[in-house]
Description:
The protein is an alpha/beta fold and 365 residues long. It is 42% helix and 16% strand. It contains 14 helices and eleven strands. The strands form two sheets. Strands 4, 5, 6, 7, 8, 9, 10 and 11 form an eight-stranded mixed beta sheet that branches. A three-stranded antiparallel beta sheet has the order 1-2-3, sandwiched between helices. Helix 5 (143-155) links the parallel strand 4 and strand 5 (160-164). Helix 1 crosses helix 2 (76-86), helix 5 (143-155) packs parallel to helix 7 and helix 8 (203-213) runs parallel beside helix 9. The longest helix is centred in the N-terminal third of the chain and has 20 residues, at 95-114.
Amino acid sequence: MKITDVKTTYIFIPHLGSIQDATIRHPTPGRGQCFVHILTDEGLEGLGVGDGGRAAQVLINESLKPILTGADPLYIEKLWDDMFWRVRGVGRKGLAFAAISAVDTALWDLKAKYFNLPLYKLLGPYTDSVPIYGSGGWTHFSVDELVAEQVGYVERGMKSVKMKVGKDFGNSEKEDIERLAAVRQALGNDVEILIDANNGYYAKQAIRMARAFEPYRVGWFEEPVLADDIEGLAAVAAAIDIPVATGEHEYTKFGFRELIARGGADIVQPDIGRVGGVTEWIKVANLAHAFNLPVAPHAFQVIHLHVTCATPNLRIVEYLGVAEEFDKLVYTEFPEPVDGMWSPYPDRPGLGLELNPDVVKKYGS
């Protein structure tokens, strides 16, 4: 089997709601993702998805496509290595790895289709059902909107939810506590509440805020400080009892090696759309396992569903309401979670996903 072509589709749906967290200054309506299509001479096609928008399209089409075309798509490790070195001068973090991630995921989707297996079964499943938490709690929500969203997740059977803190770059401390208190009061004591500061605090501020959050029985404190401040993350993790979760803005096994070895994470959060696709996500999950740390992936939930079913050290899977809204439009269908648990289709090869042609026609480019 040989790759005959690599194509990209960028889908942006402008009417979807905006998001805002501690460090997004201005919420922008709409949601988009870059999709990769790997075509072969045997008629099989792999579908991948990643961050980076139109810029990722350009990088894939101009830098990665030439080294993929004509190659055997089953040689995924070799192709990943070729892509890694192809972008050495502009990559290592950010856009280039969003592009690699999308291509790599498409290669794994293709490989699973070649062997006529769902991706999670090809990877070697640990389970066929994973727990999820309802994620949102955006800082531009009013308290009533925040509570309604979080309660809505619980009414769907989810036993854990996540909300944002660190509002206004950490300058609304009193409001952070009041919003958390309102959610805890609405949910009662039996639901786990996770909080996410999206890099919004400084280290000593995060330590002080963690002590204020503790009475509300917080399950983890996500990205309390700048993601690149590993010393700050380690200081926070050492000083507080709430577990520190981080990793969504880290890239490759090399970045996670430093993060974990230096004590910056109690819960490891690789993002399959950034870290380097399925290939690198699995390695990071295994690395975390070697340090006896749990994994809780960030975003890209319909892709994470498969890799987390092959992960023995899984903590829980993020289920974003805004992503669900997008996915319901973009894909012809995908499996629905039930009572806080989620399972892939057991009999559909690959990721089991197909893009909605009408949505591609209307919103794709």
